[in-house]
């Protein structure tokens, strides 16, 4: 059973707690959708100043909406479009301080001003991406990037 946590430590301590919570939530569970659903809910509970968090799953040459928390979202994103498509094709984390300055940005939610997208890669194969949007410009730091990449790695380790 998950117990709601009030994150009152330093950002590093809080991220370490979230990583432990994710390990607990996914321990012994290999179902991708179940784990991504809990992961999205956990991040939505933990992260401040965000307006959307969720996953897009790779299918053919596009990303298809998966488990998420937030307003209804774009359902399909071609690999060559937007921040998510860029992260999918480069297989690299993308941090965008101001999405309005990102060429080809897809505005699923007009309130979004910054974004971070982390690809889920297993055995050099793209599984999907973790996408987090914020209404705050320059919301995502190097620390966010570091810990969210670790978060994604925990999820990848649950996949058979």
Give a structural overview.
With 160 residues, the chain is an alpha+beta fold. The protein is built from four helices and six strands; from the N terminus they run H-H-E-E-E-H-E-E-E-H. Strands 3-2-1-6-5-4 form a six-stranded antiparallel beta sheet, sandwiched between helices. A hairpin with a 5-residue loop joins strand 2 (62-70) and strand 3 (76-78). The chain is globular.
Q: What's this, in brief?
A:
By secondary structure, the chain is of the alpha+beta class. The protein has helices spanning 11-26, 32-46, 82-90, 142-158, and strands at 52-59, 62-70, 76-78, 94-96, 114-122, 125-134. The mean pLDDT is 93.
Placed side by side, the strands forming the largest sheet appear as 3-2-1-6-5-4
The percentage helix is 25-40%
β-strand percent reads: 25-35%
Question: What do the pLDDT scores average to?
Answer: 93
The shape is globular
Q: How much is the radius of gyration in Å?
A: 15 Å
Distance between the termini: 24 Å
How many strands, which pairing sense, and closed or not: the largest β-sheet? 6 strands, antiparallel
Number of helices: 4
Q: Topology as H/E string?
A: HHEEEHEEEH
What's the β-strand tally? 6
Oligomer: single chain
Helix/sheet category: alpha+beta
Query: Which ranges are low-confidence, i.e. pLDDT below 50, for 5 or more consecutive residues?
Result: none
